[in-house]
Design goal:
Distance between the termini: 31 Å
Low-confidence stretches: 1-8
Oligomer: single chain
Shape: globular
Number of helices: 5
Length: 580
């Protein structure tokens, strides 16, 4: 245990003891509370010859388990807590560096009307995340919590200022590793200002704005890179900046049913492994406008991203989880399996995207709405790369060469390649007290090579049509049946897919389901596999237990534009979650 961790633990213990004695004087049961949660996901893997899974490919790794337990204690203005994690080893698809057991997250905090102070580990987001976002996503095995100190001040009504400093979590690596410099110090400040509250403006229009400044400090940085010039390979030693900063500003305006949000961020030159060590500054712009009234809503959004990867370690790869910032995706987050076969991963090195969403609820007791009404949602997202113009180096044109500015890019110029397009039409209809359904048509364009980082031409561009129907039947107050069918049609990649699922619920505790995904259109007849799954579960208050057996297809699992690869697997899975 290093000195910083020891100091934080001792300070947490001091705050905890002070809070305990304060509560003891007033009655511990009356004034203190304890809460917590437990999540366990385990899987036992078995050979599956059809999927190419044999004893040799498993290599003895027939079991994986991810466990997380969290405990929080609060008394008066004090809070303290910790999280225990065990990857023994991690489930397949999670980074192998996740393997380990310990307490990677602990904190102590104090709050009142004017201040919130936290020491230890914490999560935070400034604005939409362009400058900073520290968060955890359990299903992705992603956790970039910051260990250090954070203070939020509220000196006057409508004003909130947050300052923080610390080091990001890097799996189980020690913090403040001075010898290896395995990540830099992250520091930042953010301000939120509500104009209406500050000036006591009693009007329908609401205005707020904010700004962020975040820096990263690494020491002892140098890098030798190579590129081909005049048919010969040349080597250069780069002096890399020890300090890199991002500044962002945002505004939020609403008036009745109208709303507008805009945020712009600028990052100084930040050569890194992610951008091939170019010295070009980064920029990001996010705009969204919306209008809503009873039964109708429309949203328009636009985003431009140019060289905005910002990590606390310059030579970190995409899987190293050391992202300081976050670029929110515009694409729709699909919950059904076949549309999510081609999920979009945010392209930090450059993308331009547009999104439009319209939601209309047809009133009850109309010709189209019927007795119970009907809702129609149309959603469209399109993403292009950005236009990159060559720069001159010793009279030679080149793009993305290490040690140069990389390229130039007109701010509103669109690139030549459509990375992703997603057209969704969804109709939700309640037919009676017992029957309701969700029906969708989806058209996808997915540049598999560029989005997933493959060699150009390896897979190509996928054009896919998806249709799905999700129908529920409430048999009585305790029994219900849900049937889900999906079809994906494409001539690219692995061809056509079909899915059928039945789920039966015995309220209030039990449920069982049977499903099958069939890749019937695969050009390789040996790979026209059924990905079957049988599962059952029990729910009691906040506790849920699920046991299943079946196949898992390989592919990307994405949440909010952040993805991880999930390998093919067959076996028994157990999931347990509870909270108190």
């Amino acid at each position: 245990m290093n000195k910083v961790t020891f100091f934080i633990l001792m300070l947490m213990l001091t705050l905890f003891v002070c809070g305990y004695h304060a509560s003891a004087q007033q009655g511990i049961l009356e004034n203190a509370s304890i809460s917590g949660s437990l999540q366990t996901d385990a899987q036992y893997y078995v050979p599956d010859k059809a999927m190419g899974i044999t004893d040799s490919t498993l290599n003895g790794n027939v079991f994986g388990m991810n466990t997380s337990g969290e405990l929080n204690y609060s008394v008066g203005n004090f809070r303290a807590g910790m999280r225990f994690e065990a990857y023994t080893p991690a489930l397949k698809g999670f980074d192998t560096r996740a393997k380990g057991v310990g307490i990677p997250y602990f904190y102590a905090s104090y709050s009142n009307k004017y201040i919130d102070a936290t020491i230890g580990d914490f999560y935070e987001q400034f604005g939409c995340g362009f400058a900073l976002r520290a968060y955890q996503e359990w299903n992705l095995g992603y956790d970039n919590a910051i260990r250090g100190a954070k203070v939020t001040l509220r000196p006057y009504k409508g004003i909130k200022v947050t300052g923080l400093t610390g080091y990001q979590r890097f799996f189980w690596n020690n913090y403040v590793n001075i010898l290896n410099y395995d990540r830099g110090l992250v520091s930042g400040v953010d301000g939120d200002f509500n104009v209406n509250e500050i000036f006591d403006l009693q009007m329908k229009t609401q205005i707020s704005f904010g700004g962020s400044f975040v820096s990263k400090h690494e020491t002892g940085l140098s890098k030798t890179v190579s590129f081909v010039f005049d048919d010969s390979t040349q080597y250069y030693k780069l002096n890399l900046p020890e300090n890199v900063a991002t500044a962002a500003g945002r505004i939020n305006v609403s008036h009745g049913g109208f709303g507008f949000y805009g945020e712009y961020a600028y990052k100084i030159n930040n050569p890194s492994a992610y951008n091939t060590y170019i010295y070009r500054p980064g920029q990001a712009l996010y705009l969204t406008a919306s209008y809503s009234t009873k039964g109708f809503g429309v949203t328009l959004a636009a985003k431009r991203v140019d060289n905005m990867s910002f990590k606390s370690k310059m030579d970190a790869s995409g899987s190293d989880q050391l992202d300081i910032n976050f670029i929110p995706p515009l694409s729709k987050q699909h919950h059904y399996s076949l549309p999510s076969l081609y999920p979009y991963a945010t392209q930090y090195n450059g993308e331009m995207s547009l999104k439009g969403n319209v939601l209309y609820s047809i009133p009850k007791k109309t010709k189209l709405g019927g007795k119970y009404g009907m809702s129609i949602e149309l959603d469209y997202t399109i993403v292009y790369d950005i236009k990159k113009d060559s720069i001159q180096f010793n009279g030679v044109s080149m793009i993305d060469q290490p040690g140069t500015e990389g390229y130039t890019s007109p701010f509103f110029a669109v690139g030549d390649h459509c990375l992703y397009s997603d057209l969704n039409l969804t109709v939700t209809k309640k037919f009676s007290q017992k029957w309701k359904g969700v029906f969708s048509y989806i058209y996808l364009i997915y540049d598999k090579d560029r989005v997933e980082g493959h060699s150009i031409g390896e897979y190509g561009v996928v054009n896919a049509h998806v249709g799905l129907a999700d129908v529920s039947w409430k048999i009585d107050n305790k029994n219900s049946l849900r049937c889900e069918t999906q079809w994906l049609f494409t001539r690219q990649d692995k061809g056509n897919w079909g899915t059928l699922l039945f789920e039966y619920s015995f309220l209030p505790h039990w449920f069982v389901s049977v499903s099958d995904e069939y890749n019937y259109g695969n050009e390789d007849k040996d790979q026209r596999l059924h990905y079957y799954n049988v599962s059952g579960g029990y729910v009691y208050n906040s506790t849920r237990v699920t046991l299943s057996y079946g196949r898992q297809r390989d592919g990307l699992l994405c949440v909010g534009g952040v993805c991880r690869y999930v390998p093919a697997a067959t076996g028994v899975s157990l999931s347990l979650s509870t909270s108190f």
